[in-house]
């Protein structure tokens, strides 16, 4: 009779909470650590207030000096350096695949079933990625002397880690079914790879190659700063001699090339996939 | 044709002899508990049984996609267990296989999928350059005609329907000129009508080529309709082995358990 005041299912009601109290505390702790890290970082970089205050003024001043760009400076010096940059990026990408494909095959756990070899290949890939391309360039300038050869090797060694990792992931994602079918037909290992695996990773392979070439065009533009050839050399000279209208020419040239590379890569990629 | 000399069959009319086959994925927990089966040299032998009872494992032990723990499997009297490397490859190319999920190479053409049944025979450079022997190409065309896909040779496998893909799978397996064909749930991903059509095709083509078939199948009615011999498995053991006419309700109850579903 007192069905309104008395709720018969009340004892059966269950409370739902998204997080347990322990989870809630740990989530707060994560936030606290994040905030502390940012505060610590800001305190440690030692911003000099005066420099910060006149930064807009300095920037405006630089832009005025850069304008108008000295376009007559473009040919032949900047042009030739630009072409050299493209060559460094292209050769570096091609050479990187020579190293990255075997490493990726060793790193992919469905291809190479020997665990220590997987780990070794992973280590090689991580090592390649952990060194910045400018540092690789410094090393190869020390070995080959200044010039484009050092640039090519720097680009290749920096790219191996990136390309090898993505390639190994693509290999591991390949459907094992077709391989199993070919193995069941008595196909040797090489044929299994060639006809069962390669067709599956082919789109990823070309996608990675184009993407890395695109990145390498940008990376090789700065290699000249450490003497490894390309347009960075011209840029470095211009900055050192305070020829700002030449600096802006170089920057514009880089921008145009990067834009063109982006457009070309996108065109090809849509065709491929 | 394969010119390799074959060992004489031990018992007349038996192509494949399985004795005491045991498979343990985890030690002490056998999935197959001592299977003894003799597969006749012609017609379809169907293996029925509930999911997880080891039908697939049994079929995969034959071509060593799964490594048996113990026991013996002989094809035309030649032992298959214990083969390694090149010998295993040569044995595998005598055994065709058709899969539930077709396992075609999606981004290759139908023709190349069929020709890949010859990968155990042709040297790698031929496969790489797609320079398969003329004889193989003609046989591939013939098989595509036989499975009813003559005009699909240059289409990519991922453009085909399920039934069409399984037809390509059958053509690929027959491309090996196998001495026996294994079919692991070949119709489980297909609609009922396509399933019957694919089984009819499989029966007709293997009979024409004189290839005996071992087929794993969930559908008991289809098994009875197409098989000459039925093997009922339950809990990793064979509990029925005989012609379809002898398979009765109490056998099915023993194989699948329960009775409400009958």
UniProtKB/TrEMBL annotation, chain A:
How is this protein named in the record? Phosphonate ABC transporter, permease protein PhnE
Q: Which domain of life is it from?
A: Bacteria
Domain called ABC transmembrane type-1: residue spans: 82-265
Pfam families, A to Z:
BPD_transp_1
Keywords, in A-Z order: Cell membrane, Membrane, Transmembrane, Transmembrane helix, Transport
TM spans, by residue? 28-45, 86-108, 134-157, 247-265
GO cellular component entries: plasma membrane
Family membership = Belongs to the binding-protein-dependent transport system permease family.
What is the membrane topology here?
A: Multi-pass membrane protein
Q: Does Magnesium appear among the keywords?
A: no
Q: What is its main location?
A: membrane
What GO terms are given for molecular function? ABC-type phosphonate transporter activity
Record PANTHER family: ABC TRANSPORT SYSTEM PERMEASE PROTEIN P69, PHOSPHONATES TRANSPORT SYSTEM PERMEASE PROTEIN
Q: Where in the cell is it found?
A: Cell membrane
Q: What is the lineage of its organism?
A: Bacteria, Pseudomonadati, Pseudomonadota, Alphaproteobacteria, Acetobacterales
């Amino acid at each position: 009779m007192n069905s309104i005041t008395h709720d018969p299912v009340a004892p059966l009601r269950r409370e739902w909470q998204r997080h347990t109290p322990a989870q809630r505390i740990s989530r707060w702790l994560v936030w606290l650590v994040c905030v502390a890290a940012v505060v610590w970082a800001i305190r440690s970089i030692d911003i000099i207030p005066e420099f910060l205050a006149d930064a807009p003024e300095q920037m405006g001043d630089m832009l005025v000096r850069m304008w108008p760009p000295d376009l007559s400076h473009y040919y032949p010096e900047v042009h030739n350096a630009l072409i050299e940059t493209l060559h460094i990026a292209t050769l570096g990408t091609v050479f990187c695949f020579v190293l990255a494909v075997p490493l990726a095959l060793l790193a992919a756990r469905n291809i190479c079933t020997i665990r220590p070899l997987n780990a070794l290949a992973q280590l090689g890939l991580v090592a390649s990625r952990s060194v910045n391309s400018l540092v690789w360039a410094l090393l190869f300038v020390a070995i080959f002397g200044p010039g484009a050869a050092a640039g090519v090797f720097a680009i290749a060694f920096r790219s191996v880690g990136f390309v090898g990792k993505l390639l190994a992931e693509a290999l591991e994602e390949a459907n094992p079914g077709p391989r199993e079918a070919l193995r069941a037909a008595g196909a040797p290992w090489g044929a299994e790879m060639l006809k069962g695996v390669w067709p599956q990773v082919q789109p990823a392979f070309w996608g990675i190659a184009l993407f890395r070439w695109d990145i390498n065009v940008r990376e090789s533009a700065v290699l000249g700063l450490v003497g490894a050839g390309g347009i960075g050399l011209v840029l470095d000279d211009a900055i050192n001699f305070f020829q700002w209208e030449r600096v802006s020419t170089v920057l514009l040239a880089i921008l145009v090339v990067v834009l063109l590379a982006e457009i070309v890569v996108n065109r090809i990629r849509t065709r491929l996939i | 044709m394969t010119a390799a000399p074959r060992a004489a069959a031990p018992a007349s009319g038996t192509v494949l002899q399985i004795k005491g086959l045991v498979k343990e994925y985890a030690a002490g927990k056998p999935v197959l508990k001592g299977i003894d089966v003799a597969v006749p040299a012609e017609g379809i032998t169907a293996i029925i049984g509930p999911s997880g009872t080891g039908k697939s494992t049994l079929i995969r032990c034959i071509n060593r996609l799964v490594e048996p723990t113990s026991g013996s499997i002989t094809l035309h009297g030649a032992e298959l267990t214990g083969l390694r490397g090149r010998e295993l490859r040569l044995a595998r190319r005598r055994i065709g296989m058709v899969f539930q999920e077709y396992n075609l190479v999606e981004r290759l053409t139908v023709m190349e999928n069929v020709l890949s049944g010859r990968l155990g025979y042709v040297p790698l450079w031929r496969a790489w350059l797609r320079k398969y022997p003329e004889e193989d190409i003609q046989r591939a065309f013939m098989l595509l005609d036989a499975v009813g896909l003559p005009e699909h040779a240059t289409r990519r496998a991922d453009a085909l329907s399920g039934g069409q893909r399984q037809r390509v799978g059958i053509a690929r397996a027959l491309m090996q000129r196998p001495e026996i064909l294994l079919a692991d749930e070949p119709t489980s991903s297909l609609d009922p009508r396509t399933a019957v059509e694919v089984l009819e095709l499989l029966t007709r083509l293997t009979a024409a080529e004189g290839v005996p078939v071992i087929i794993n199948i969930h559908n008991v009615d289809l098994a009875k309709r197409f098989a000459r011999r039925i093997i009922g498995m339950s809990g990793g053991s064979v509990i029925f082995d005989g012609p379809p006419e002898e398979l009765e309700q109490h056998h099915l109850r023993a194989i699948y358990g329960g009775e409400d579903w009958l």
